[in-house]
Every structure is written in C-alpha cells, then in structure tokens.
Amino acid sequence: METENIIELRHVTKSFADNGFVAVNDFNLEVKRGEFVTFLGPSGCGKTTTLRMIAGFEMPTSGEILLNGNPIQNLPPYERPINTVFQRYALFPHMNIFDNIAFGLRQKKVPKDQIEKKVKRVLSLVDLEGFEERRVTTLSGGQQQRIAIARALVNEPEILLLDEPLGALDLKMRQEMQLELKEMHDHLGITFIYVTHDQEEALTMSDKIVIMSEGKIQQIGTPEDVYNEPKNAFVADFVGESNIFSGIMTGKRRVRFCGGEFTCVDDFPEGTHITAVVRPEDVVLTTPEKGMIQGEVTSVIFKGMHYEIAVQSGRNEMEIRSTRTPKVGEQVGMVIEPDGIHVIQAAEDTNRFLVDINENYRLSYNGKVLDTSVTKLIRGGHRLEDGTIVDENGDKLDLSRAKFEAEIQPSDIEMTDNYEDGLVEGNISNLIYQGDHYSYVIHADNGQDFVVYDEDLWNMNDRVGLVMPVEKMKFTLKKQGRQ
Asked: What CATH number labels 5-228?
C-alpha cells in the first residue's frame, strides 16, 4: 500500500565521533509525495548533512529514515531511488553532453535505444534539445547546471535532492533557474528536496520550508507561514527583513514595545514578556503628531521600488520600507496596524550551568575558581574544625557528589576580546538585532551555549571571552546529601 509520505525522518541525529560535534539533533520531518521541500538555514546549520543522510552518503548516529514506509538508513546510495545534484556539477569534461547524461544508464546496462529515448526526453525537459554533441566546456554555467539536473532526472528517481545547485550562478541566472526548477518540478511531479541558505530561493520555489539552526529545526511551514507567522526571533530575523523588539503584554491584545503601546491580533496574558516582530513594509510614516511613536530619520537609501529608511526612536531603531522620501534629521511619526505586529512569547534566555566544588569547598567552573565559597551559599552554613560543612541546624552535609547550578541573565554577561579575562571563551554562533541591543549565542569551547545581550555589534564567528561576575549569579545546591 502506497503511503502519503514518501520520506520520513524520525528522531534523526548525526554526531561526529572525532570531535563530538552534533551536526543534526533529533530531526523529525514528513515529506509528502510530489512536494517541493526546502531546507533553509545559515552555513553549518546541518541542512547538507541531513540531505546527505537521505541520499545515503552519511549514516545517522541514531534515528530512522523511511522511504515509502520502509527503513533505508542502512542502505548504500546505489540501492536508494534517489539522485543528487550538487553545487559543483561534476560533469565529465572529456565527454559530450549525450555521454554525460547517459553515463548512469550505461552503468545499469540499459539498452541503447532506451538510452537515446530517455536522454532526448530529459534534454527537452531542461530546454537543451540538440545539444547532444556539444562539449561541456562550451556551455555557460546555467547550461551546465541544466545538464547536471538532466543527468539526475534521466535515472527517473522517486526523489531528487539538490544541494545549493544555483550557488555558482550570477544573480540574474539564479533567478531564472529558480523559476525553471519550479516549472520542472510541477511538470515532473516527483519529490524535490532542496538545500539553500538563500531565503529568496526558498520562498520562490517551495511548497514547504524547513528552517534550521545549529542542527535543530526552528520551524516547518509554507512560505507564507514562515514569513508572516515566524515561531521565534531566529526565524523572524533569518526570513526576510524584520524589526524585532522586546516587550510586554499590557492587556487583552495590547502590547508595549519600542516606547509605545499598540493593539495587536495575538493574545497572551497581561504581563507576559514577548518578542514583537514588525516587517519594514508594515510601518507607515506620518507626521509626528499622528504617529503612535515618533523618531528621527537617520538614514535614507534608494532601493529602486522603495526607500529603505532608518528611524531612531529613543534607544530603538526602526527600519522602514516606503515610497515616501523623508530627509535625514527629519522628525517623523510611525503607525503600525494590529495585523502588522506579530507577537511571540519571549524565549527563556536565562543561562544555567553546573559548577563544581573543589577540595577547599570553593566553587569552580571551566577550571577557574569563582570568588565565593560553599559556606556563603548554604543557609547558616559554616565549616567545623575537622573540615566538614554543616547547615543552620548543625547537620553535616555530604558534598562529595554535590554540585551547584548557577544562573546568570544575558544582560549581566560581558563579552571581551581578551579571552583570558573570561570565565569561558568561544565563538559567536548566532546574532539577532532586537531594537536596542543585539542578542548573541556564544558556543563555548566546553560545549555550553550562552545567550548574551550587548549594545555593541560583533561579527558571526568572532572569538570572545565571557566575563560573568559572581555577584550577578544565583546558585542552587543540587544533589546534596547528609552524613
């Protein structure tokens, strides 16, 4: 019995034993027969690794990959009815176009008359009829890409995987190929799974977009869903341009952010901390007295169909797209209608990590001693002459297996380029501008991820140290025992 889903990934994880890096973490996805699904995300997010596991070039560390309901995660690539098109076309330069396309069929011992028929059919599909005798070296980049696609299609796969296939083309050719690929998909009716970091490609071609970051799925939805209803700040920031602000619900469908109070269509309990997402095209410029909020124009850039305008409103910056052309330094008002505000419940950004207790009953983390002791953190705690620790009731505590959990807020951590000054060091793996500050994720060398708020702009992959004052930390004793 044919299932509706042609491919399913269930709890698929891929880690690399040599360094313990987890490239894909608990990935779950259903792909329907005939869908055009795109994996979208920044470099290093795990999208190509996922594609390679579907193709059979990588084996998952755990989890299942099902094709038509049957597990295939242990099958070699040649036993899967799947073909892959890569960014590097890997065409044979010593062969003509016909021989390049026919190569796979000849390996399968397909009769000669069938090969000719199949090759001519796929050349027609990619609009390159009559090119059979041409040399690969005489073709443009776009034509070579079509030949690579034809070589994959001639094998009549159930699924076609495309790994950033348009990355080597110039902008105009890439846009033309996006439309051609979509038409090809609609005509063939086979399943396409496409990998890209280009949001325009994903929005233009896809039935379903899977947005990834750091090996995890952030959101799955139609192009309209992920653009208009982002699930979190990462999706809002990555797909299209967005103004992202921290705020709070002040009443039923009332929200405060960017120094103003607005009516919105999303409803959360009063007092809920939220993230407000406003697309630049949803901000209307007006006179200061008519605006819900006011600000000063700091930048105006002509973009052809519109102007890209930056307005400073208190500590917050608002990006606006408009056909109106205000002058730099002009005071303006801004109006945002309820359906132009998308409200997301704020993520829990508190940093939590376990710290050790050393032989002197002082706390340490990452091999560095913190400026505090166990006795300061236990109610009535003090140390007896024999070295044991007792609490306010005089009970001796067994701290041989105990740990403290430390908590620190993102705004209480300072980033520094003097690594040795930090409690830990690592690299910036993600950043999002949130109106009056940047929200950073730092992947520390010990494997811990830390969220840090900073007004200054750092770059992706910058190496930083994290200064975390002990007086800003809260400690909770874990796994304590009594003697």
From this structure: 3.40.50.300
Q: How many helices (H) and strands (E) does the chain have?
A: 9, 34
Provide CB contacts within 8 A for 199, sequence distance 6+: 40, 238, 239, 240
Q: Which two tokens stand for residue 71?
A: 């597990």
The helix/strand/coil state of 334 is: strand
Secondary structure of 269-281 as H, E, C letters: CCCCEEEEEECHH
pTM assigned to the model: 0.79
| Helices marked H in 290-411 | 374-377
Strands 62-67 and 382-383 come out as unpaired
Name beta bridge partners: 261: 256
Neighbours of 161 (CB within 10 A): 23
CATH fold of 351-481, please?
A: OB fold (Dihydrolipoamide Acetyltransferase, E2P) (2.40.50)
How far apart are the C-alpha atoms of 293 and 297, rounded to whole Å?
13
Matching residue, tokens 């007092």:
271
Q: How far apart are CA 481 and CA 141, in angstroms?
A: 68
| One fold for 241-345 and 351-481 | yes
- Amino acid occupying residue 68: N
CA–CA gap between residue 156 and residue 232 (Å, rounded): 39
How far is it, in rounded angstroms, from Cα 377 to Cα 388? Answer: 15
**What single-letter DSSP state applies at residue 461?**
T
Q: SS3 of 147, please?
A: helix
The domain segmentation of the chain, as residue ranges, is 5-228, 241-345, 351-481
CA distances 162 to 87, 114, 148, 231, 315, Å, are 8, 26, 10, 26, 44
Tokens of 44: 């290093």
CA-to-CA dists, residue 483 to 381, 397, 398, 456, angstroms: 15, 6, 5, 50
Q: Write the burial class of residue 182 (CB in 10 Å: 0-12 exposed, 13-18 middle, 19+ buried).
A: middle
Domain 241-345 grouped into CATH 3.60.15.10: no
Task: Give me the tens of pLDDT residue by residue for the chain, a chain 483 residues long.
Answer: 457 899 999 999 999 877 678 899 999 999 999 999 999 999 889 999 999 999 999 999 999 999 999 999 999 998 898 888 876 767 888 888 888 888 878 888 888 888 888 888 888 877 788 888 888 878 887 788 888 888 888 888 889 999 888 876 778 878 888 888 888 888 888 899 999 999 989 999 999 999 999 899 999 999 999 999 999 989 999 998 899 998 999 999 999 999 899 999 999 999 899 999 999 999 999 999 999 999 999 999 999 889 999 999 988 999 999 998 999 999 999 999 999 999 999 888 899 998 887 777 778 898 888 877 776 666 655 555 555 666 656 666 656 666 788 899 999 999 999 888 899 999 998 889 888 889 999 988 888 889 999 999 999 989 999 999 989 999 887 654 443
